[in-house]
Amino acid sequence: MRLAVASACSWIAISAQAQQTAEPAPAPAAAQDAAAPAVAQDAAPEVAPTTNVVTVSGSRIAARGFSAPTPTTSLGSEDLAKSAQPNLFNTIAELPALQGSTGRTTSTNSTSSGIQGLSSLSLRGLGPIRTLTLLDGQRVVGANVTGVTDVSQFPQLLVKRVDVVTGGASASYGSDAIGGVVNFVTDKKFEGFKANVEGGMTKYHDDKNGTLQAAWGKSFMDDRLHVTASGEYGREKGIDAPGFGEVGPNGRTWYKNTAYQVRPIAQTNDGKPQYTVIDHAQQFQYAKYGLITNGPLQGTAFGVGGVPYQFNYGSNGKPTGTGSVTGCVNPFCVGGDLSGSVGAGTNLAMDLTRQVGYTRVGFDLNPDHEIYMTANFGKVKSEFTPNPGAAKNANLTIQCDNAFLPPSIVAACAANKITSFQYGTANAEFPRNINVHPTREMQRLVLGADGKFQLGGKEWSYDTYAEYGQNKTDIIVHDITLNSRYNAAIDAIRGPNGNIICRNPVAAASGCVPLNIIGNVAIDPAAFAYIAPLNGPQQHTKQTQQVASFNINGEAFESWAGPIAIATGAEYRREHYSVTGDPYGNGVSASSPNTTEYPADPLLNTAVGNNWYAGNYHSGSGTYDVKEAYLELNVPVLKSATWGEANLNVAGRETVYSTSGNAKTWKLGGTWKTGVDGLRLRAVTSHDVRAPNLSELYAAPVVVNNVANFNGAAVSFQQRTVGNTNLRPEDARNTVVGIVLTQPSWAPGFSASVDYFDIKVNGVISALSAQQEIDLCSAGNQEICGAMSLNNANAANNFVTVQAFNLASLRNKGVDLEASYRMNLKDYSLPGRLTFRALATRTLSFLTDPGVVGTIPSEAAGNNLGGTPKWKGLATQSWDTDKYSLTLSERWISKGVYSNEFIECQTNCPVSTITHATIFNNQMKGAFYVDLGGSMKIADKTTAYFKIDNIGNRDPVAAPQTNLSFAINPTLYDVLGRVYRAGVRYNF
Known about the structure:
It is a multi-pass membrane protein. It holds the Pfam family Plug. InterPro entries: Beta-barrel_TonB_sf, Plug_dom, Plug_dom_sf, TonB-dep_rcpt-like. By secondary structure, this protein is mainly beta. Strand 8 and strand 9 form a beta hairpin. The strands form twelve sheets. The chain has a 22-stranded antiparallel barrel. Strands 3-5-6-4 form a four-stranded mixed sheet. A four-stranded mixed sheet has the order 33-34-38-37, with helices on one face.
């Protein structure tokens, strides 16, 4: 099972008083025997007066009997333990409302994205940047320049509850909570010692993993001083790529080089579709060890020792001498010699290591006031290969006097009266593949106080804290080539004394070592060291976050329907980042001068950098600060034996950003516990924002030369890619309407909820291409016209500033369904209890309008190449006794399409357009996974457990691309296969 929705104790929102103890306050006996409701705060039973108040993550209000209108699902420590995952991120990401999260199986084909190895959560498919992830209700320093946190850096063994708020929460918690909030709640008063040891691997004997966790807590000084500490180490070794060819890793047979074969639009007037999904796709622009791709020698490939042979194109293709191949559609044939395919050379999962340390020291000044300190250290290292070799797609020119060419090719050149030819190669002869090593190291310190006091005859509670956090991220790439050195090294000739030298005298004088890429030949180590120096691309980033926060809440006075509760507070936050790229990627500047590790080289571009095959990191920095204050009210408006109880929940927040000025957010909602047994209605609408992050505001500048169409003519200009400090916050309207049924007398043990949600986001921050900016300016957008100058008499003064703008919009509509039923088997003279739970999200529509000339809104719902299927579901069935437990769970993704903008047809197809292309088959299969887990108490304090995920070893569904990537979608589909895990927990 990936998760179990909260049990009877775990979903009860913990009161301020209950948080002073090691365990949550117990529910009444009737509730303990009944089913755990799927929606945390809305299904909570009436709380006894001794419990005081209920606190939930969907609101800042803490009040007796309070029920927030924003849906919140909670997972307790027992549920998290049953999931038996090496990382809590994996458990949370399986919730149906979580869509588009990033983990160690995503971005494995990326060198420069900056999110490699980052475990970040995304609600509603809106992206991690629109999901606010908190630790004990507090912000955590970002793990990359977009500001998103890395859950892998959190102290996970001490987490006793995770609250997932599936609704806009900016008025309560501030920026980034457009999609909602995920709040990790730790056990602040843990007593005793507990440990967890776990290991596992896949059916294919790879991705071997081990986890070691321990936590200790003890009180001193008559229970006034409480110390808690935990340490965690985890290693998931990943799944290495097999390298070249159509071969899945370690016996996985599902990889088939699936790709799109795309005909030119001009040819689609024949009634046939433009797109066809093909298996066994082979690019005809290169071969494993080299291929001549144009001219009279086209189709000549090179094998062992550089011996030429006729390449097998597949599709019965024949080279035309012009670069094209008969029977094939550029750039793919079907079948043939697939040995040089690079798609399978991407790691399926990264090798990831977690090291986390955490401590909390709290001291009670008196029974009503506590001061505390928490310190959190988290280090996450990952390693992966984005692709093997360094494919050159017919973009190399080989001179016919190249010293490494076999005599037969030299003679053929002379016979055909050519002096050079185009050439492509996968560079499979390289001794090592590109390997990327991101490391994130967080240090976070919090000093705070909380407690209660009397004011106006009422009891009020407060919490305040100051936080300093920093995250240092180092991305280092090894065994990757410098483009200009590679080009110089392969252009080899015979020197005056017959030895082979680099043709370019400047290159030869600066240390160039000739490189033979003609066939499968041993690479000269000196040549590889020259083109791929040990000091590869590097990016060093430091992010800091400083927060000061004060919050107070209480019941101001009593009304005829109940207490009117108030929560208010203020917060100051400062975010800063600085990033330094290596001189070869960034270009030489005062911040990154040439060094002994990166010596000056006349072949390299010292002005703008961009010299590496990939991973050209650039330097930048930026800072912004935020001041904000909020007020939230809960006003009971109805209390009747006949009509039930109702309350109104309102909140407002005023925020001042140093970069974009003021922003106002608000929330208006209510709940009605009707007079119908167990029936509750809820509704909430809110205005939410996401402020531009550091990356969008202060992106590291990159300068290149470019050409685009302007007023009907091609214009050359300098393209300056930078951040945009004039960006405004994204503006969202989030509405949720729901029905909750909680343990009615006619169905004891049963709870269910249905919620309709509608999220509209305007002014979405999105990056544009230079051509798109030019088109928008021509259409009259004056803001974008200010980012360019193209009418200069001297073309050298033309420029276009490429940056992000508030142009796009999003709208996501759907339905959440949750249900649970729990029955005690002792009523049937059987041991234990049974629990049935199910959660599902139906995405009705997810429209994205780029706001760009020549584009149309795109529909993402049911686009299974993305992150939002029409249906995502999770169901669990559990049997639990005091000694044993057994849990079966099912995960479901509905079938979908490759793109909702495609027109599916086989014959009589309309002519394709840029916005509506035709495709032969637009159907993409869904997936259904079954997991099994269980535990047995083997001693008084010791429990052994096991877990099998994806029992049926269901293969991932092929996800075609227009290039030969790994052709799967790890955001939606299980790519690991069957996984076995087992472990032992000790709790004393």
